[in-house]
Design a protein that fits this description.
Organism: Zea mays (Maize)
GO cellular component, one term: ribonucleoprotein complex
CATH superfamily of the largest domain: Ribosomal protein L6
Protein name: 60S ribosomal protein L9-1
InterPro entries: Ribosomal_uL6-like, Ribosomal_uL6-like_a/b-dom_sf, Ribosomal_uL6_a/b-dom
CATH class of the largest domain: Alpha Beta
CATH architecture of the largest domain: Alpha-Beta Complex
Radius of gyration: 22 Å
CATH topology of the largest domain: Outer Surface Protein A, domain 3
Family: Belongs to the universal ribosomal protein uL6 family.
Number of strands: 12
Largest sheet: 3 strands, antiparallel
């Protein structure tokens, strides 16, 4: 059974600007600008109250389409969190038999991994993170 109209709104906090153009949502805040493409979803995005509220509609939606409304709202909330507070990523080195050692070299642009699978050579890998990062214990921490 299809529902004629299902909609949900969310508030946009102060200091954050959201723009919507053809299901392409752009969020700008103090930490930068993030963009998310929702063209694969059968939803309508509208800004209301002078850009302070975002409304997501699904016309004649099935159960799956109506579930996508809340998913889209959650993605936009995560974009807002990213441009206001930022994120911190952790990658942990684990091993079963051969202990791994890692260090950051080349002025924070490469990770040097020693004793990977018991190899004698030192593997140098370009860093996956362009943001400040450090090694603490068995973690590589990257702050975005």
């Amino acid at each position: 059974m299809k529902t004629i109209l299902a909609s949900e709104t969310m508030d946009i906090p102060e200091g954050v600007m959201v723009t919507v153009a053809a299901k392409l949502v752009t969020v700008e805040g103090p930490r930068g600008k993030l963009t998310r493409n929702f063209k694969h979803l059968n939803l309508d995005f509208q800004l209301q109250e002078a850009g302070r509220k975002l409304k997501v509609d699904a016309w004649f939606g099935t159960r799956r389409t109506m579930a996508a409304i809340r998913t889209a709202i959650s993605h936009v909330q995560n974009l807002i969190k990213g441009v206001t507070k930022g994120y911190r990523y952790k990658m942990r080195f684990v091993y079963a038999h051969f202990p791994i050692n890692a260090s950051i070299t080349n002025s924070n642009t490469a990770i040097e991994i020693r004793n990977f699978l018991g190899e004698k050579k030192v593997g140098t890998h370009l860093c996956f993170c362009l943001f400040p990062h450090e090694i603490c214990g068995g973690f590589i921490m990257c702050r975005v």
